[in-house]
Every structure is written in C-alpha cells, then in structure tokens.
Amino acid sequence: MRLHVGCAMWTHKAWQGRLLAHPLPAEERLRHYAGWCDAVEGNTTFYATPARDTVASWARQTDASFRFVPKLPKVVTHDHRLTDVTEPMRAFLDAIEPLGPRAHALWVQLPQSFAPTDVPTLARFLRRMPSSHRCAVEVRHPEFFTDARAARELTEVLTRAGAEWVPFDTTAFFASPPTSDAERDAWVKKPRTPLRTEALTDQPIVRYLGRDDPDRTVDGWQRWVDITVGWLREGRSPTVFIHTPDNAQAPTLARRFHDEVRARLPELAPLPRPIPVEPTTLF
C-alpha cells in the first residue's frame, strides 16, 4: 500500500532557507525536495526536452520509488497534436531513460482545442507508445466532461491502452473570487473543468488546486481524502499532486494530505523525513 504525494516543481523561491536549505547547487535541489515529497510533476519537459545527463542527475538524487510524471513536450501535444511526432518522441524517450522506474507515467496534457473528434488521433498515438511506458492523459475540452458519449469513447480508448485519465480539480479554487495577486493570476490561467473522480487504472493520478489560504485548501481536498482512502483499500497506488496559486506551502500541504490519509490507514507507508535546514550563521 503506497500513496505518493508531490508538487508542481521541486524548487521554489518561497521554500529557500525555510523548507529547503539555501543556497543549494542545482545537483542537490531535487534530493532535498525528495525529503519532503516522493513525487513531482515534470512540467519543465513540456518546454524543452532535457539533456540525458540532466535527467541522469535527477535519477541520482532520488531513490527508485520516487515518482516523476514528465509532461510530453509541447511540440508533440500542442504544435503537432500527436501527429508526425516520431522524432521528438524518440528524443524525449531517450532523454528520460535514465529515470528507469522513477518515470511513473508520461503525462499527455492536451490543449483545450483537442476535442472528442480528435480521440482517434489519441488512440493511434497511444497504440504506438512502447509498452515500457504507461501514459496519463489530461484533457480540457468541456465536451469530455459534459457529453456522456464523448466521455465514454475517451474512456474506452484509454482503457484499451492501459492509460489513466488525469483529473485537474480546480473546483475548490473557483468556488469564490480570488483574494491575492497569485490567485488573480491563476483565475485567468487555470482550466474550469467539472469535477471528475473516477480511476481507470490501479495507479490513478490526481492534480488538485487549492487556495493560498491553507485552511481553504484543506477544506477543499476532503473529498480526495475519502476517494484516496477508498482507492488504497481497493489495492490501488495513487499519486496526488497538491497545487496552490503561489505554491509557497505546497510541500507542507502535500505532507498534510498524506498525514490525513494515513490517519485513516495507519498501515500506509510513511513519507521520508525532510533534510534539516541548517540555521544561518554569521561566520
């Protein structure tokens, strides 16, 4: 029984000297983050495929049970929309190979314009994926959430491929108007997709966006505590990513989510112990 939790990134200015030691060389930052959380979203790979040596450094900083969910490059999902992507996908898969089992799933985040009529394209893409990698697909077109036939057809394609449907739960965030600059920025950038809570595989992945107020974030995730407990009791192994607009408390909130689940399932494996942040000295 294992629940993995994490954040959208492994380094953040607001964490420096408070949650993570500062300064830290680049080759140590992920190791210190991995003392707080045992999973991370791979957003950086969306913008550029990293050098293989860089990815090897990520592997050295984490143990084999750590979970990366690297996002497919933008050129694959948004520019070429999963068509004629043999070369960029070959380069991407080669780059992330050093992660080994840490590459938990490849995150296929599709643009909002990727509609139910494009599902056959997704099906062809998933059929070509090597069996050594599983995929987790995030869709944002509203019809996937409001049209039962569209949802059913997508579910059938994903199920045949052994792929997961990743929900990005923003319902708690959009429940009331923003109250900070970070929330106002997120208000215009984040998707307003309806809530979806079903898992298709034994390794579901959830992305949850709360508020900058930790109490409101915790209030909004209570349904996910219930769902996660249920999944674990069914023998599933979920990964839950905790976001807030400013992400200043994201690692502590991720651990709090894990603690709430573990309070109901004491047999759940604990998270690692954070590396102590050494106090600043004058000399």
- Share of β-strand residues: 5-15%
CATH superfamily of the largest domain: Protein of unknown function UPF0759
CATH architecture group name of the largest domain: Alpha-Beta Barrel
Helicity range:
25-40%
CATH topology of the largest domain: TIM Barrel
The total number of structural domains is 2
Largest sheet: 6 strands, parallel
Number of helices: 12
The SSE order reads EHEHHEHHEHEHHEEHEHHEH
Pfam families: DUF72 (PF01904)
InterPro entries: DUF72, UPF0759_sf
Protein name: DUF72 domain-containing protein
General description of the model:
The chain is of the alpha/beta class. The protein folds into two domains: 38-165, Alpha-Beta Barrel (TIM Barrel), CATH 3.20.20.410; 167-270, no CATH class. It is built from twelve helices and nine strands. It has a six-stranded parallel beta sheet with strand order 3-2-1-9-8-7. A three-stranded parallel beta sheet has the order 4-5-6, with helices on one face. The radius of gyration is 19 Å and the shape is globular. Pfam families: DUF72. InterPro entries: DUF72, UPF0759_sf. It comes from Micromonospora maris. This is DUF72 domain-containing protein.
What is the strand and helix layout of this fold?
Layout: E1 4-7, H1 26-33, E2 39-42, H2 44-47, H3 52-60, E3 67-70, H4 74-79, H5 86-96, E4 106-109, H6 119-128, E5 135-138, H7 143-146, H8 148-161, E6 164-165, E7 168-169, H9 181-189, E8 205-209, H10 214-220, H11 222-233, E9 239-243, H12 250-264
Parallel strand pairs: 1-2, 1-9, 2-3, 4-5, 5-6, 7-8, 8-9
Protein name: DUF72 domain-containing protein
